[in-house]
Amino acid sequence: MEGWHPAFEEYTEAVYELREDDVAVIQARLAERLEVSRPAVSEMIRRMVEAELVEVTDGTIRLTPSGTAIAERTVRRHRIAERFLTDMLGLPWHTAHEEAGKWEHVISEIVEKAMLDALGHPTTCPHGNPIPGADYVELDTVHLTEVEVGGGFVVQRIPESLEFADGLLEYLEGAHLVPGQRGHVTASSPDGTMTVDIGGSTVGIGAFASARILVSR
What we know:
Elements: H1 6-20, H2 27-34, H3 38-50, E1 54-57, E2 60-63, H4 65-88, H5 93-103, H6 109-119, E3 142-143, E4 152-157, H7 160-163, H8 168-174, E5 182-188, E6 194-198, E7 201-205, H9 207-210, E8 214-216
Antiparallel strand pairs: 1-2, 3-8, 4-5, 4-8, 5-6, 6-7
């Protein structure tokens, strides 16, 4: 398991996270997520098929058991690093997300265990996404757009797709749209744009984010 090239870790992680967000994994999606060219993705997927890390059926990319193991290790260390950087060092969400992308490739098993011990064994990253291998309990959630005007909600998860949108993590944290925060919907537009009262403020949320933020009622 140890010793895989960071590029393989990046790709298996991207496939894992796209599937976690119920997105069909095709080469175009990977190119968009990783900000690389489609020919580069095509070549890497060819190498990963040869390494038996992924399988491709009708254009859809799926992780093999070996690929899943690498992805889970990488995602776990990324989310533990985010927790450490926010909870222990006080870094803001967007900075922690960027830095964790570097840490995930160099954290050893002994350091991973020490970080988990120091953090009290969290089950999610700061954005509410489960840490693979942790004792995470799945909650009944809906997308924010499914909450009616006047309805209350508790933020549960900010999916990975929102973490890659420019400036969005910084906005959501500043607007108190964080896991565990309670709010209620004050307005909803046909295009999916919503207005909520949360953390003592009235906040506008665009359709892209509203359709992806997961909340409980």
